[in-house]
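Structure (tokenized):
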């Protein structure tokens, strides 16, 4: 295989994305709600956090796999991403060098990107945290990256412990990031609304002083030997 064809094969320009309508529908829910109804799976490791608690992101994933400390493939991803996309980078939890900073985040924002999520380090954190473009990262480092190692754009990836395919939905907020497989988003959105309605009603009960304890807890305590039969709290 020639160098040109090898390079081409590492950048997939054509992916099927979760629809804008489903992105909009999912974006109104907390990542925690979506994670619960998705079976309590699909979340990135808690080390990946937003630079500001007010940041929230939702959109189809552009996946990027890089060698630690090198951001060449991220530049390629920024060039092919479409408005509304979220760049999701498998940075190997390497914090030795920042993979992006203010310049690349500004490029992504002006190009219409929805956000950047990196299992790795970023820099210019003060400027990024004050801005309105969502950036999630595993840590910070002032050291800049190299741009000399091939990576992969838009291939199935594992990012901070979560499996993710190009075009899958990613939603991130102050609690962290959850991935929803593209084909499952409509079902998850429907379940999320039901859970939100139930939780809203439960909180209203508690605030009124009605049934402060959850209705299920004594049964479960007995089932696992924490309460004897007939014993009550």
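Design, position by position:
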């Amino acid at each position: 295989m020639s160098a040109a064809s090898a390079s081409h094969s590492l950048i997939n320009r054509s992916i099927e994305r979760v629809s804008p309508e489903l992105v909009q529908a999912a974006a109104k829910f907390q990542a925690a709600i979506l994670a619960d109804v998705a079976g309590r799976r699909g979340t990135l490791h808690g080390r990946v956090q937003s630079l500001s608690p007010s940041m929230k992101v939702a959109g189809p994933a552009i996946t990027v796999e890089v060698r630690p400390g090198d951001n060449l493939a991220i530049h390629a991803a920024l060039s092919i991403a479409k408005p509304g996309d979220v760049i999701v980078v498998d940075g190997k939890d390497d914090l030795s060098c920042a993979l992006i900073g203010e310049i690349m985040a500004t490029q992504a924002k002006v190009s219409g990107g929805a956000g950047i999520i990196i299992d790795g380090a970023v820099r210019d954190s003060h400027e990024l945290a004050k801005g309105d473009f969502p950036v999630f990262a595993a840590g910070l480092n002032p050291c800049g990256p190299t741009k000399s190692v091939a990576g992969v754009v838009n291939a199935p990836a594992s990012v901070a412990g979560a499996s993710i395919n190009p075009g899958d939905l990613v939603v991130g907020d102050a609690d962290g990031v959850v991935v929803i497989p593209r084909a499952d988003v409509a079902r998850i959105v429907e379940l999320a609304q039901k859970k939100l309605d139930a939780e809203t009603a439960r909180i209203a009960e508690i605030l009124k002083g009605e049934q402060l304890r959850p209705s299920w807890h004594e049964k479960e305590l007995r089932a696992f030997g924490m309460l004897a039969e007939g014993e009550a709290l």
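Reviewer-requested clarification: The chain has eight helices and ten strands. Strands lie at 49-50, 57-65, 86-100, 115-122, 135-140, 152-153, 157-159, 162-164, 169-173, 176-180.
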